[in-house]
Design goal:
The protein has 15 helices and 31 strands. The chain has 571 residues and is of the alpha+beta class. Helix 1 crosses helix 11 and helix 12 packs parallel to helix 15. The longest helix is centred in the first third of the chain and has 21 residues. The radius of gyration is 29 Å and the shape is globular. The protein binds one RNA strand of 77 nucleotides through strand 14, strand 16 and helix 13.
Length: 571
Amino acid sequence: MRLTNYLLPTLKESPADAEIASHKLMLRAGMIRKVAAGIYTYLPLGLRSVRKVEQIVREEMDRAGALELLMPMVVPAELWQESERWEQYGKELLRLRDRKDTEFCLSPTHEEVITDVVRGTVRSYRQLPLNLYQIQGKFRDEIRPRFGLMRGREFIMKDAYSFDLDDAGADSSYEKMYQAYQNIFKRCGLEFRAVEADTGNIGGSSSHEFMVLADSGEDAIVSCDCCDYAANVEKAQIRLARQEEPQPQGEIAQVATPGKKTIAEVAQFLGLPESRLIKTLLVRTDAGEQLAVLLRGDRDLNEIKLCRFLDCVEVEMVDEANVVKMTGAPSGFAGPVGLDCRIIADHEVRTMVDCVVGANIKDSHCSGVNPGRDFEVEQYVDLRQAQTGDGCPRCAGTLQSWRGIEVGHVFKLGTKYSQALGATVLDRNGKDVALVMGCYGIGIGRTVAAAIEQNHDDNGIIFPMAIAPFQVLITLLNPKDQQVVKAGEELYNQLLQAGIEVLLDDRDERPGSKFKDADLIGIPIRVTVGNKALKDDQFEIQLRAVGERQMMPTDETAPWLIAEVNRQLVR
RNA sequence: CGGGGUGUAGCGCAGCCUGGUAGCGCACCUGCCUUGGGAGCAGGGGGUCGGAGGUUCGAAUCCUCUCGCCCCGACCA
């Protein structure tokens, strides 16, 4: 492709509403343009990267035995009513009516549609296993779209759905997808982790998220430094520290802590580490129960673990009026001693000795407090958020925490949708059996964004070869110099014939602008054709990731480039 | 949804407080000049100042409403 025939609207400055590197760079490099909040046009350069990821996904899905199909984006309400998600899904589901006033939605995911297809086409266990996928635009009316393609409302997703006769078959389908995902993200040149994930309120068994490691990631994950345990912090378990029988020393005593309401304030005021305090959280479940949750002062509550333990969908902090009602004091001074409600605590609290808790009296805390002696805990549970330094639940190793961008998710669905929609087959015995399903998603645009997040510098993007919009960029320094044009075009044609994706910068611009654009758009290999080097029959080669320039005889350049492109693809 | 902010040329911004016929940089067009890291000079095009209503002789500026966009939001006793 010649740049003079291309649309490459690069920007010197980043638009004010872009926050993170990938968003800024994709806008500046002319890959995307915003149309509305969370809705983007993919410009030619951006689309090429998107297509690269799609193609890798397609190849690996096909290799894993999945079949591509394409479902509609506009889906009748009645399908969603059958699964009862029409009511459950909430505002993320964009609903609309046609001219006959029939209700539809823009489908944010396709369990209903695919299940409908399968129930109408698959009758026998002999047709299983089946794994169907599509690569399609999805719409979710996110509360807060942000970070460009990272969290858009409209986005491109690969979603796959597997159907098996039984759990063993479903496990095998899941394993295949897990492996395919490993291949896909490896081929994309990403540094990632597959982590155990919370299954959310869909319930069901296992689930893994594929996380690209990046500081700007919206998810927190932990991984073990010894074994391969890795999990989303929402899910991460923590090895129990060895417990010695606590030996209470002190006597309980009320201390004045005027106006000191937070853990940090109280700890500082009393000159104690936060770990000597017990944090007393008063929460209310969605069923209306109010209870106290205790944690070591320097720990954070993992609300998902709490919900799972309490068997509820969400909990909220009790409001000020009810804090007063429960404790007799304003918020900031709640403690477990003498508290008249159910009390549960994180395991760690059991080992704490002579600690400080709220006194349930305004401007007062109690010191010398000991669990078991001074108050009763109904149950000790794993409730805290895992963090760096915590023990691995699988081995003697230590957990390390990271930020991650969720680019893929594999999930065992069970029979939720097949039962709701009546997707059954006859088994060997001629008996009707509900299909066991799995679903598997990959955010295509997000994968491109994550790759940029992970591969950029101050000057711009540094694309991994596999998803670069072009593999080689040839910059003609003096496009009016016939020698330069001739040599450059010859190389260009050689590369094209070899199937290399090459972009020829034949614009009549100053060298500086061309180099800046080249760095910005991040094509992995750059060849500079200038009249000086050409006098010695040489081109200049520069790898975007490395930066150093090297001279190369013109007749050796094409073969070298072809080899280098392939070398970087295999990696 | 709550809190905060913002909306002026394609992009980045000033002007608003203190009302008086809209400006800067980049980009774009023409010409000259220049050509190894976003050159220079000269000329030029482009704006219903997000929208509606109001106050006023006069509104980008003040008031009311409205829409868009951005940021933060269980953080904890």
